[in-house]
């Protein structure tokens, strides 16, 4: 078909009600759209079928992961330009899903279907996970964690760098010379200082990942650490690191659900980037479990991504792309909800620190690492899996930058029955 790009661009604008903010290049080599803008490459008609049979974020994600769609030019600029069509729904802007439900644009939609070719929905990419969501049983949580984390330690080393910390770093400065490794070290030290760790204390690290927090706390602060994870690959990697540093007498790594930890009490608990996996229905149970594992006077540091409150907080909300490809069963809550649940469990919340801009910078560093060694990343996983991580991290960086999501460190205390204070008068002296 001659000049598919112009026809596709015109039909898309009729459906969406606004000009496309990116340039298009179609499978026949034709191009249309604003000169100099990032180019959305529609490599084949199958890309259109994926979008039309699943309008919205999931259809676009399927086309991206399968390689049917690509972007030429700066990925962040392209995603930013398209955000009003994909994620942001303010004012009168229509998303693709909303538009295709409007009878006034169905004629253009029918023309798009003709342009897309045979009316058969393509099978989703093999990287997609589709199953009943948000069960949060021990079995379903193990499966969800394995899907995300058991994709190969070598792949995570490539993306995360030597620190092997898969959570928001803490940047003293956003200058270009600041390094990810130093920022991750500063984040671990910040957590240790907030917890007031001292030699001889006992720390529980919930969702210990590849052991970085456990190692730092044992090596730098002389505490004994129990780290728990549901990932076999993470546990094996962490145990080797611990043995290599001669800290096996200080650190124990378990493949264990946090709900099954029963050998408290602990002086302190760190939960860094784990609570997003707990689920709304299980969150109070999670908070009560950690409260019960702490000594009176013990501290919890809960580091967790937050979403913005919705108009109707009773409505079910899920990011289709993240749920299907990245964090199955993951759920985000507003920071106010998290604080309330911790207080309901008995905690006294003493400090909340927002690190939204820090996570945006962290994610951009991870994307840089991935793209700098792209061919190896593909060999270590699959082309589709590498594209999943590229899209998810780049889009997440923009989400933090535009305040669609945030991340917070909440310091909470199991206050003694007497009500005695267990924090210094000027607690913010813990800053690194």
From TrEMBL:
<dbReference type="InterPro" id="IPR020803">
    <property type="entry name" value="MeTfrase_dom"/>
</dbReference>
<feature type="domain" description="Polyketide synthase-like methyltransferase">
    <location>
        <begin position="155"/>
        <end position="416"/>
    </location>
</feature>
<dbReference type="InterPro" id="IPR050723">
    <property type="entry name" value="CFA/CMAS"/>
</dbReference>
<keyword id="KW-0443">Lipid metabolism</keyword>
<keyword id="KW-0949">S-adenosyl-L-methionine</keyword>
<dbReference type="InterPro" id="IPR003333">
    <property type="entry name" value="CMAS"/>
</dbReference>
<keyword id="KW-0489">Methyltransferase</keyword>
<dbReference type="InterPro" id="IPR029063">
    <property type="entry name" value="SAM-dependent_MTases_sf"/>
</dbReference>
<dbReference type="GO" id="GO:0008610">
    <property type="term" value="P:lipid biosynthetic process"/>
</dbReference>
<comment type="similarity">
    <text>Belongs to the CFA/CMAS family.</text>
</comment>
<dbReference type="Pfam" id="PF02353">
    <property type="entry name" value="CMAS"/>
</dbReference>
<protein>
    <submittedName>
        <fullName>Cyclopropane-fatty-acyl-phospholipid synthase</fullName>
        <ecNumber>2.1.1.79</ecNumber>
    </submittedName>
</protein>
<dbReference type="GO" id="GO:0008825">
    <property type="term" value="F:cyclopropane-fatty-acyl-phospholipid synthase activity"/>
</dbReference>
<dbReference type="GO" id="GO:0032259">
    <property type="term" value="P:methylation"/>
</dbReference>
<keyword id="KW-0808">Transferase</keyword>
């Amino acid at each position: 078909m001659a000049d598919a790009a112009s026809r596709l661009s015109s039909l898309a604008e009729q459906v969406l009600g606004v000009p496309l903010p990116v340039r298009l290049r179609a499978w026949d080599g034709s191009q249309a759209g604003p000169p100099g803008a990032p180019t959305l490459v529609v490599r084949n008609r199958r890309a259109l079928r994926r979008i039309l049979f699943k309008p919205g974020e999931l259809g676009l994600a399927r086309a991206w992961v399968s390689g049917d769609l690509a972007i030429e030019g700066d990925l962040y600029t392209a995603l930013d330009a398209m955000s009003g069509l994909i994620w942001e729904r303010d004012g009168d802007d229509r998303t693709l899903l909303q538009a295709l439900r409007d009878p006034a644009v169905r004629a253009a939609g029918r023309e798009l279907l003709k342009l897309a070719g045979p009316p058969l929905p393509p099978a989703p990419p093999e990287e997609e996970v589709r199953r009943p969501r948000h069960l949060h049983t021990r079995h379903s949580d193990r499966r969800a964690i394995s899907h995300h984390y058991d994709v190969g330690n070598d792949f995570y080393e490539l993306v995360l760098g030597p620190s092997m910390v898969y959570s928001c770093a803490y940047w003293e400065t956003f200058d270009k010379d600041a390094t990810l490794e130093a920022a991750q070290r500063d984040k671990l030290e910040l957590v240790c200082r907030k917890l007031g760790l001292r030699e001889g204390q006992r720390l529980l690290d919930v969702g210990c990942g590849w052991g970085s927090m456990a190692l730092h706390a044992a090596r730098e602060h002389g505490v004994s650490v129990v780290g728990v994870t549901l990932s076999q690959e993470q546990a094996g990697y962490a145990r080797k690191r611990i043995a290599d540093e001669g800290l096996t007498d200080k650190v124990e790594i378990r493949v264990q659900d946090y709900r099954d930890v029963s050998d408290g009490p602990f002086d302190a608990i760190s939960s860094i980037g784990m609570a997003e996996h707990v689920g709304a229905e299980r969150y109070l149970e999670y908070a009560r479990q950690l409260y019960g594992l702490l000594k009176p006077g013990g501290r919890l540091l809960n580091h967790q991504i937050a979403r913005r409150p919705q108009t109707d907080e009773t409505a079910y909300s899920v990011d289709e792309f993240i749920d299907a490809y990245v964090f199955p069963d993951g759920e985000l809550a507003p920071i106010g909800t998290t604080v309330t649940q911790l207080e309901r469990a008995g905690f006294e919340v003493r400090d909340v620190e927002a690190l939204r801009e820090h996570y945006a910078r962290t994610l951009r560093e991870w994307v840089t690492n991935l793209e700098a060694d792209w061919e190896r990343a593909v060999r270590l996983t699959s082309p589709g899996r590498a594209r999943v991580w590229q899209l998810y991290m780049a889009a997440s960086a923009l989400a933090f930058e535009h305040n669609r999501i945030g991340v917070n460190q909440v310091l909470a205390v199991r206050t003694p029955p007497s009500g005695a204070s267990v924090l210094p008068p000027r607690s913010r002296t813990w800053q690194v």
